[in-house]
Amino acid sequence: MNISKSVELFAEAQQVLPGGVDSPARAFRPVGGQPLFMDRGEGAYLVDEDGNRFVDYVLSFGPLVLGHAHPKVLADLAATAAKGTSFGAPSKLETQLGKLVMSFMPSIEMIRFVNSGTEATMSALRLARAYTGRNKIIKFKGNYHGHADMLLVQAGSAVASLGLPDSPGVPPAAVADTLVAQFNDLDGIAEMFAAFPDEIACVILEPVAGNMGVVPPNPGYLAGLKELCHKHGALLVFDEVMTGWRVHLGGAQTLYDIQPDITALGKVIGGGLPVGAYGGRKEIMQQVAPIGPMYQAGTLSGNPLAMQAGITTLTELQKPGLFDQMVETTTKIAEGVAEAAALAGVPITQNQVGTMFCSFFTNQPVTDWPSAANSDTDAFARFFMAMLENGVYMAPAQFEAGFVSAAHDSEAVDKTIAAARVAFKAV
Ligand SMILES: *Cc1c(COP(=O)(O)O)cnc(C)c1O
Hints:
By secondary structure, this protein is α/β, with parallel strands linked by helices. The chain has helices at residues 4-16, 71-81, 92-104, 117-132, 158-161, 172-175, 186-195, 221-231, 251-255, 282-285, 304-317, 322-344, 369-373, 377-389, 410-426; strands at 38-42, 45-48, 53-56, 110-114, 136-140, 178-181, 200-205, 235-239, 262-265, 276-280, 349-353, 356-360, 392-393, 402-403. It folds into 2 domains: 4-69 and 320-426, Alpha-Beta Complex (Aspartate Aminotransferase, domain 1), CATH 3.90.1150; 71-317, Type I PLP-dependent aspartate aminotransferase-like (Major domain) (Aspartate Aminotransferase, domain 2, 3-Layer(aba) Sandwich), CATH 3.40.640.10.
């Protein structure tokens, strides 16, 4: 594969941007080699600057649920952009997207739009603390909630993939009230509530973990968490930045029928533009300024272009049968990849929930961070490189989810499985 233009562009970018990237998850560090510079996206495909074409399972790390450059999204964006890109005043698009989100997730009675998932979780925690008058929060090992100080403890995604310790620059005081629990372990949470009665504001989690690979909750786990939270006067916060419109159109809260008190959103609701949001029960959301005392603001929050991309994306997703078809496609890919691994004699554990999947290079079930971390990341790196050589672009780290879009047709699936049959032999 010729990547000479990417090599040139990467050398230049490294003079300007730390590591040549604006987000570490893109940097290919966990797999070796260097990132490819992309020229364009076309449906299920990415095309790099050298003209190499790949079936894409990164989809901008989740948001592009309709695929790249969806014609309706582009047309609606162009029409909205023609009217101006930002007003610093309300537009009807914010209410429209808010209502649309609520129609998928009834636990959200009021919503506030922000600009990223990081802002969404950060604000959701401020809200939980404001509402309960408590300071401590519980998060889970291997869950990633963006890069706010208080959440950058034993986090997933690139923090885990790069083997980084908790980040320098985060003052100890910022994480002094952050308790870290093991995903899928209820007893650990019960012990924390017992150790800190009346001090814990909330438990925040990815209800299906997607930043340590894909790890579903054990049966009854989410219900158990909710019960413990409410017994101790704490709130349950679902970070559905990734899982929203991914594991189910109504998120993990609909898939497992557990209504959280507060939900953080991002990724898909922006249809590929920068958006986040947090929402929940009305009495909780009424804490937020200007109707309540909890301050949170944003110059570009509710940006009309981002709102429009979200509206068009969520509206398209309402087409009958579309989401089920995407899940079916994901299952075909997951099964095809697992079969290719078996044929090559490579032990993997394939996890899938909805349109998210992950092939862990381990023969053990993966249910939490220690079992995920057991994976053979060197074998993954060899698999990743071989897939790339064979025209398939996966996330460049073992501990990331793969995503499928509505644009992934049988041709894309066949290409992927054929590539996997070759790639596992190279492992
Ligand atoms: C991506 C992600 C975030 C952070 O969102 P950004 O838009 O990258 O700030 C937060 N939580 C989860 C679960 C995510 O997957």
